[in-house]
């Protein structure tokens, strides 16, 4: 399960809409609870580093950008608990490419965007054997804590 507040969800949706028709991407920063639940306290938007022609259906986070995000999280005494990205004009479900490039234990929030709106949003977690994703329950908190 992943827990976040409405403002974090709104930030993800806004980023997806702003970057449309290209994929947006970013980090989910927070903490792991004793019960295994992930609590998102902040989003950390990152510019999609893919070449323009590939940005419509792929995203790339450069290693130095990931490192900056991890350093930022550590400075706030939190950590990277997942990633988010958009699927312009495509369902908010992981692609084969997503499966091949994901890491188990992290959450992957995907938002489907169309011109001017974010129409669906789901969270996914890759199985430890990396064979597939399972949909992860999203718990909405009034204030992430």
Main features:
single chain, 145 residues, alpha/beta, Cytidine Deaminase, domain 2, 8-stranded mixed β-sheet, 3 helices, 8 strands, 39% strand, globular
What does this structure look like?
With 145 residues, the protein is of the alpha/beta class. It has helices at residues 6-19, 63-75, 96-101; strands at 2-5, 25-32, 38-46, 79-88, 107-114, 117-126, 133-136, 138-141. A hairpin with a 5-residue loop joins β2 (25-32) and β3 (38-46). The two termini are 15 Å apart. The model has no long low-confidence stretch (mean pLDDT 94).
CATH class: Alpha Beta
Q: Indicate the low-confidence ranges by residue numbers.
A: none
* Record field, number of beta strands: 8
Query: Structural class of the secondary structure composition?
Result: alpha/beta
- CATH architectural grouping: 3-Layer(aba) Sandwich
Cα(first) to Cα(last) distance is 15 Å
| Mean model confidence by pLDDT | 94
The number of domains is 1
Spatially, the strands of the biggest sheet line up as: 7-6-5-4-2-3-1-8
Named CATH topology: Cytidine Deaminase, domain 2
Q: State the order of secondary-structure elements, H for helix, E for strand.
A: EHEEHEHEEEE
Form type: globular
Radius of gyration: 14 Å
Strand content: 35-45%
């Amino acid at each position: 399960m992943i827990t976040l507040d409405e403002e974090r969800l709104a930030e993800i949706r806004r980023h997806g809409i702003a970057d449309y028709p290209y994929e947006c991407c970013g980090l989910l920063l927070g903490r792991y609870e004793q019960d295994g639940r992930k609590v998102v306290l902040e989003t950390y938007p990152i510019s999609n580093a893919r070449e323009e022609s590939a940005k419509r259906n792929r995203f790339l986070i450069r290693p130095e950008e990931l490192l900056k995000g991890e350093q930022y999280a550590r400075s706030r005494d939190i950590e990277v608990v997942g990633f988010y990205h958009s699927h312009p004009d495509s369902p908010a479900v992981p692609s084969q490419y997503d499966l091949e490039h994901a890491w188990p234990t992290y959450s992957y929030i995907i938002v489907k965007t169309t011109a001017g709106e974010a129409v669906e949003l789901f969270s996914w977690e890759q199985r430890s054997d990396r064979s597939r994703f399972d949909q992860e329950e999203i718990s909405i908190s009034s204030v992430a804590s």
